Amino acid sequence: MHCLAARSRILAAGMCLAVLGLAGCAGPVLGVLDRDQTDQDVLTIQTDLDGIDLASTRFLAERDGVEYFAARPVEGNGTADTVCLLIEEGIGVGLECAPLMAGEAGATIRDSRVTAVLLPDDIDRNDLADEGFQLLHPNLAVRPADAG
User: Which end of the chain offers a freer environment for a tag, N or C, measured as fewer CB atoms within 10 Å?
Assistant: First the structure.
């Protein structure tokens, strides 16, 4: 009887771990969004961002006076796997939201100077280099606008 009870507990624990593992697979695959927000993560410009959860913004990188952030949309805007790329420059913020799936590039913003792409934690970054992208952060790649 004691062995049966022990096996039942082991089986129950294994099922709990499996459920937790599946739950961990849901949603964005961008670890930077799971850490606490710091002062550096807060956008300077917060106008016209009604669909963005401002408490979820996370700083990724800065280059040539342009700051790049990742964020989640407010609940009800997009799906559980939607992640937004924000570019803050001067007096404006560029914004693009798209699903971010394991192994696939996400939201992309193109302007007159660069193409910026949001990346999940587990993407093959070698392919990006072959396409002319440079990593500014493990979750952000850019290339000149006139490339590709």
Answer: N
